[in-house]
Amino acid sequence: MSIITLTTDFGLKDGNVGVMKGVILAIAPEVQIVDLSHQISAQNILEAAFILHRAAPYFPDDTIHVVVVDPGVGTDRRPLAARLGPQYFVGPDNGLITLWLIHIEEKGLTAEFFHLDQPQYWLDEVSHVFHGRDIFSPVAAHLASGVLLRELGTAITNPVRLEFPHPERTPNGWRGEVVYLDSFGNIATNLRFEHLKEQQVTTVLLDSVRITKMVSAFGDCPPGELVVLYSSTGNLIISEVNGNAAQRLCVKVGDTIEVIVK
Amino acid sequence: MSIITLTTDFGLKDGNVGVMKGVILAIAPEVQIVDLSHQISAQNILEAAFILHRAAPYFPDDTIHVVVVDPGVGTDRRPLAARLGPQYFVGPDNGLITLWLIHIEEKGLTAEFFHLDQPQYWLDEVSHVFHGRDIFSPVAAHLASGVLLRELGTAITNPVRLEFPHPERTPNGWRGEVVYLDSFGNIATNLRFEHLKEQQVTTVLLDSVRITKMVSAFGDCPPGELVVLYSSTGNLIISEVNGNAAQRLCVKVGDTIEVIVK
Amino acid sequence: MSIITLTTDFGLKDGNVGVMKGVILAIAPEVQIVDLSHQISAQNILEAAFILHRAAPYFPDDTIHVVVVDPGVGTDRRPLAARLGPQYFVGPDNGLITLWLIHIEEKGLTAEFFHLDQPQYWLDEVSHVFHGRDIFSPVAAHLASGVLLRELGTAITNPVRLEFPHPERTPNGWRGEVVYLDSFGNIATNLRFEHLKEQQVTTVLLDSVRITKMVSAFGDCPPGELVVLYSSTGNLIISEVNGNAAQRLCVKVGDTIEVIVK
Asked: What is this model's ipTM?
């Protein structure tokens, strides 16, 4: 049984996610559909890219990830399907795959990209405003049913890639950026375990706030304490134990952090 | 494998949607359950009717749509099951099917209605406050398992129908109403493609705001622009490109719009 | 086909619930996964316990309930699997099962508890911050696939139990507590049908508000009226017909209520 995951900025009220599932199940009745997130901030491609690349490695081979964050729907942006290592992506060609693709390339796996241009695999009527329903859902369902990528479109080699901020070395450590705030208020940065390796973090500076408690689990400090630790996917994060660090510190994505190491 | 969709005003926190799924799967373990929406505004039958009738056409034949927006639960309002063309409805008889039924009748399809009065297809104990769990979920599951509609209840011919506002002609166009605000802040009106046909919209007036950009896709204008276009289900909508028109214009459902055509 | 339910305080935005489903489906592709709630207030074990014990009885035998509200993740709190009557629990040993276990014991059913200490049933890498993904999801999937509880861990007899407030008799009735506010604003108390039995409630006092309308269904009084009735799971609740009693009365969990009976 194939798995199709769905990630959108549609929210859960309007029924549009349900409609995509109806379209998928009409073509591929046996598929398992998993919601990854439908609360991506409206039109926020970077946020969807971040959530997708963190989640994809935990899904089995042949999983098809449909992502519809699509400010260019109805314009000439290309509809895309791709194979990234052992899994698939279906969605607009606007950079959504960037972080996942970097990960795939770092692991030495191959990727293939196809411009979706075979309307026989779409709904009969295609609107200018909802390709998630009219193109991406039926394409994913046909892929799950055994249609090959190369039947769904024409091979291309230049999918859109977005620039993501990289951390930089400083005299006594690193300068990075806040890249995600999760629902607990954990502040995720773009500094990763691979950057710091055996370097020991002594202080994290976020605007004028100094945090000096480095822990390995939230429960290592009492509630209310600000701590620094690695997230479950390897990013350096700043948290308040049993609290909401993002709210307390009024942090937003893009803010600078300084890390001092020894 | 049958599909059962669920639409409620329960929200997703309290576990009541999960309970309905438990009840369904205990009777029909192989069914595919799809959430259409659980964020209908509390007791808002019109809103649920709007979301249901937009979504139903995208589901395969024999899909069973369970809708529980039920301010009259425990009173003498009838529990209902219906066949609308090739699909099914299960829920309270309070008008939830109105728009979908109009659509079915316009297409010349048949519909049948049954007052659910056979408690052997319900849970053993039926509360006065949660028929979604005690009556509608088990009935839908039995229907998915092959029980016939006429075994579940007694045929009736007078399901409750609600009045929905119709657009009216004006000397230079149409007067309509706002009928739905979606999670992107798109403002959907009750003016549809079928009303306007080859008439060309030149201006939309919403209170004192004039909108004159008619586009076919969101990306046809720069971010921040107010535009008018057709939604993916054929309603005339007012949108802000990459923004939230409903918030910006302080619009609410029921507000009047004027459309000038040439 | 086995059922696994998921209850967490993760919210639905960050993709972490989807990741748990990916992990489960990689091990047990045929399982039915049901979301019970992912909007438990952060770290609120009592709230999760309340939602779990209300929902579990409606699921079929052998259902596996995974609950991840886990402020102690990464510390020495034990990971737990349990059999409670005919169903299973998997999650941290922090009291989440308390109310459900009381219910099981009252019904004279047996329960067994196992400290999860067999890492061969976990993901290869176990983080200090996300045991929902690394331990509880794979354990639940192996349990669904036929691995026995005693293979997953070591039997224990002292799972953590939390104290929940009990209602007390007063000269003319009962004194209880608000234990849950649902998404409709219904105010659930810890006074239950079993306490009151044939006693007739004449008045409920909540701070300085007196409520004297006792009804059996919401629709028995006109919109806006404050009423007292039994919830679908047997708790005495205070509601505003078609309104939000919790907001109107500024109630919070833990507030005292007085019930006068005759």
From this structure: 0.96
CA distance C145 to chain B (A): 16
Residues of A within 8 A of B51 (CB-CB) are: 14-15
- CB contact (8 A) between residue B1 and residue A73: no
Count of CB atoms within 10 A of residue A132's CB?
27
**Residue C90 and residue C54: Cα distance in Å, rounded?**
17
Using alpha carbons, list the distances in angstroms from residue C10 to A71, A224, C76: 27, 19, 21
Interface A-C: count of C-beta contacts within 8 A: 95
The conformation of residue C108, written as its DSSP 8-state character, comes to T
- Rounded to whole angstroms, how far apart are CA atoms A81 and B122? 45
**Average pLDDT, stretch A170-189?**
96
The tally of CA atoms less than 13 A away on the side-chain side of residue B61 is 2
**What DSSP string describes B68-127?**
E--TTTTTTPPEEEEEETTEEEEEESSSTTHHHHHHHHHTT--EEEEEE--GGGS-SS--
Phi and psi based region of residue A100 (left: phi greater than 0; alpha: psi -120 to 50; beta: remaining): alpha
Tens-digit pLDDT profile for residues B166-189: 999 999 999 999 999 999 999 999
How many CB atoms are located within 10 Å of the residue C95 CB?
19
Read off the tokens for C257.
């209520």
Max Cα–Cα distance, chain B, nearest Å: 62
Q: Quick check: helix, strand or coil at residue C185?
A: coil
Please report the residues numbered 107 through 166 in chain A whose beta carbons come closer than 8 angstroms to any beta carbon of chain B.
Answer: 127-130, 133-134
Indicate if the pLDDT at residue B195 is higher than 70. Answer: yes
Q: Which residues of B touch A134 (CB under 8 A)?
A: 232
Report which residue type is found at B152. Answer: L
Q: What is the largest CA-CA distance in chain C?
A: 62
Produce one character per residue of A59-95: b if its CB has 16 or more CB atoms within 10 Å, e if not.
beeebbbbbbbbbbbbeebbbbbbbbbebbbbbbbbb
Q: What is the mean pLDDT of chain C?
A: 96
Phi-psi region of A173 (alpha: psi -120 to 50; beta: other; left: phi over 0): left
What pTM was computed for the model?
A: 0.96
Tokens (6 digits) for C247: 């907001």
Distinct helix (H) and strand (E) counts, chain C: 8, 15
Distance CA A78, CA A148 (A): 19
What digits encode the pLDDT tens for the residues C79-93? 999 999 999 999 999
**B157 burial class (0-12, 13-18, 19+ CB within 10 angstroms)?**
exposed
| Residues in C 210-249 with any Cβ partner in B closer than 8 A | 216-220, 229-232, 242, 244
Euclidean distance between the first and the last CA atom of chain B, given in angstroms as a whole number? 50
Q: B148: which residues sit within 8 A by CB, 6+ positions away?
A: none
Pure H helices in C44-115? 45-55, 98-106
Check C17 against A39: CB less than 8 A apart.
Answer: no
Cβ atoms of C48 and C180 closer than 8 Å = no
Provide mean pLDDT across the span C109-128: 97
C7 — phi, psi (to 5°)? -135, 125
Render A26-50 in DSSP notation, one character per residue: HH-TTPEEEEEES-PPTT-HHHHHH
